[in-house]
Amino acid sequence: MATERTFSIIKPDATRRNLTGAINAVFEKNGLRIVAQKRIQMSQAQAETFYGVHHERPFFKDLVSFMVSGPVVVQVLEGDNAVAKNRELMGATNPANAAEGTIRKLFAESIEANSVHGSDSPENAATEIAYFFAGSEIVG
Ligand code: UDP
């Protein structure tokens, strides 16, 4: 299996409820290593660009407002098949459909306030990592 990197965000609903450590424990217990991490307040412009692919969707405006409603933790996770592994650990977008034991089943409040973001492909992971981190901030 290939060692890979993926991009993760612990969203404002989770930082607000002090769940950063509990969520990262799920990653670490399952073989994903946190090789970069910072707590930031995302700007409106950053959130709009980050979620630009969704800008025609009805939920876009509310999603951007939610993402700037409090601090987030942006991070890079590394491990075997990290992109797919992270998506599996996160669970379905809507917590009502998320499998038992997944982060969204355990912690998400709603389809919007669903605690975590994770890249959906290695290509998007590379783009998203570069959007938030300089190479020198990632220490494997
Ligand atoms: N989202 C939302 N309403 C929806 C679908 C998605 O608010 O009906 C939000 C939710 O926070 C989700 C994000 O938009 O995580 C990005 O949606 P996507 O379909 O890419 O889901 P993900 O890859 O995060 O599971």
TrEMBL record:
One of its GO terms (molecular function) is nucleoside diphosphate kinase activity. InterPro entries: NDK-like_dom (IPR034907), NDK-like_dom_sf (IPR036850), Nucleoside_diP_kinase (IPR001564), Nucleoside_diP_kinase_AS (IPR023005). It is found in: Cytoplasm. The active site is at 117 (pros-phosphohistidine intermediate). Residues 3-140 form the Nucleoside diphosphate kinase-like domain. Homotetramer. This is Nucleoside diphosphate kinase. It comes from Neoroseomonas terrae. The gene is ndk.
